[in-house]
Design goal:
This protein is mainly alpha-helical. It has one domain. It has nine helices and no strands. It has helices at about 20-30, 50-55, 55-75, 85-115, 130-145, 150-160, 165-195, 200-240, 245-275. It is globular and about 55 Å long.
């Protein structure tokens, strides 16, 4: 019977285990008798309600990411650097990025795993566990370096050195970015499903693509297009920061929150679809 990913009670006992890996987390939830709180989704549109079931995590992460991106942009201004050396602020930004971005990545990975395991209930993520955050970031980084880095790098270099881009140039950049996002989603899904770094190999990813078929390809394509659209909106908000800080920060908050909502929806849908197609 599928079980919920509901957060455990703070009064669970004095001898709390160290949740250093996903298997330990799942075992602890099973031992505590967690039960589902709503039926498992059977249609794609039902996955749209999954972010609402996790509204606290969605709004919390969205707010933190909006504050994080705004603070990083503020630190670029000499008025806010208070005379500290550049390496100090780089260290501060790196630490904040590790914690906030790592929490967002870990939560989305937990959403994908819940879909693969057909779990119901609120997704549980130990946001204060630095070990789990590091493992999640490692998975995301390897999934990016295993293949998507090539089209993403080509798109970035083309955008950087092509000068004034025409409509067709922007179309090329968008196509390369969509391909990079699609490759990342397939690679990331393969790694999360298999649980091994070797699952990022091309043959494993191609096998996954073959099993998912056109249905999986449609989900990945839609998610990639929406991700690129949100990236464009974020770039527009960043460019607006120097002239209108409040409007820029509002756009960033909207972008982060809507992006997380849609990411939770697509990761849940993709996980459930992969479970069905791979059986």
């Amino acid at each position: 019977m599928p079980f919920s990913m509901t957060a455990p009670s703070p009064d669970a006992g004095n001898h709390k285990p160290r949740l250093a890996d996903w298997e330990t987390l799942h075992r602890v939830l099973q031992e505590r008798g967690v039960r589902p709180r709503w039926p498992l989704e059977t249609h794609w549109y039902q996955c749209l309600f999954f972010p609402l079931h996790n509204i606290a995590s969605l709004l919390g992460l969205g707010s933190c990411l909006a504050i994080y991106s705004g603070v990083v942009l503020l630190l670029r201004n000499p008025l806010f650097s208070i005379g500290a050396p550049a390496w100090f602020w780089l260290f501060v930004v790196a630490c904040i990025s590790y914690f906030i971005v790592g929490n967002a990545c870990g939560f989305l990975q937990a959403v994908l795993k819940s879909g693969l395991a057909a779990e119901t209930g609120e997704v549980f993520w130990t946001g204060w566990n630095l070990v789990l955050i590091g493992k999640s970031l490692k998975t995301w980084l390897i999934a990016f370096l295993a293949g998507p880095i090539v089209p993403a790098g080509v798109a970035f270099l083309f955008w950087l050195y092509a000068g004034d881009l025409t409509f067709w140039d922007w179309l090329i950049v968008a196509e390369l970015a969509i391909v990079a996002c699609a490759l990342f989603l397939y690679t990331f899904l393969s790694m999360v499903r298999g649980g091994q770094l070797l699952d990022a190999r091309a043959e494993r990813v191609l096998e996954l693509i073959r099993h998912l078929g056109w249905r999986g390809a449609g989900i990945v394509a839609a998610a990639s297009i929406i991700a690129i659209a949100h990236a464009w909106l974020m770039l527009a908000a960043i460019q607006l920061f120097s002239s209108n800080v409040s409007l820029s920060w509002l756009l960033q908050a909207v972008c982060w929150t809507s992006g997380l909502f849609l990411a939770i929806f697509f990761f849940r849908w993709l996980g459930l679809t992969a479970r069905i197609q791979m059986e």
